[in-house]
Amino acid sequence: MTSSPSPGSPGQPSGPLPAGRVPVGPRALDQRLDALARQPFRAKFSLRGRDRATAALKGPATLRWHAYDLIAKRLAPAQPYKDGRQTPYRGHPVFVAQHATATCCRGCLERWHGIPRGRELTRPEHVYVVEVICRWIAREMGDGTFSGQDPCRADPDHEIS
User: Fold this and answer.
1) CB-based contacts of 32-40 (< 8 A; 24+ apart in sequence)
2) I need a labelling partner for 91 at 20 to 30 A (CA). Which of 26, 46, 74, 85 fits?
3) Burial of 37: CB neighbours in 10 Å, binned 0-12, 13-18, 19+
4) Residues of the chain with pLDDT under 50
5) What is the CA radius of gyration of the chain?
6) pLDDT of residue 68
7) pLDDT tens digits, 21-36
8) pLDDT in the model for residue 25
């Protein structure tokens, strides 16, 4: 059983989110991301090489769609397959972002974001997780915005991998 971080603990978020409530504003997301970035494990993650190039090429709209789809398949179910081991460390910008933002497994979601295990993510929780991931990617890409050619929109047969 994982305990929630206590409010005011050095380098940890200000505690779990109240049940059913998720911060959605940019300021709340930035505060949570800043707190997570103070954790030594989380601070190791950044977009480099192929993952950074993928983010630049695909652009924010496609990455948001990929994040929504990946979270729906790998994290949203009440009992995700291989929970705790389902998120690779690289291979897609969303995977890197999940580790950096503690949205990689249900245990991290519970500990760092106050979203309990054992039940399917609600729609607001799902959207919140995607927002956290996309906000982290945007911050990693520099000025908070990035654009690029979107192969998913240009090619209707393009598959997420």
Assistant:
1) 32/113, 32/132, 33/101, 33/132, 33/135, 33/136, 33/139, 35/11, 36/100, 36/101, 36/102, 36/112, 37/100, 38/10, 38/11, 38/12, 39/11, 39/12
2) 26
3) middle
4) 1-20, 144, 148-153, 160-161
5) 15
6) 96
7) 565 688 888 999 999 9
8) 80
46-84: burial string, b at 16+ Cβ within 10 Å, e else: ebeeebbebbbebbbebbbbbbbebbeebbbeeebeebe
List C-alpha distances in Å: 122 to 30, 48, 119: 22, 32, 9
Which residue type occupies 152? C
- Print the SS3 string covering the chain: CCCCCCCCCCCCCCCCCCCCCCCCCHHHHHHHHHHHHCCHHHHCCCCCHHHHHHHHHHHHHHHHHHHHHHHHHHCCCCCCCCCCCCCCCCCCHHHHHHHHCCCCCHHHHHHHHCCCCCCCCCHHHHHHHHHHHHHHHHHHCCCCCCCCCCHHHHCCCCCCC
Q: Please give the Cα distance from 42 to 5 (Å, whole number).
A: 15
- CA pair distance 94, 55, nearest whole angstrom: 9
- Residue identified by tokens 């059913």 is 20
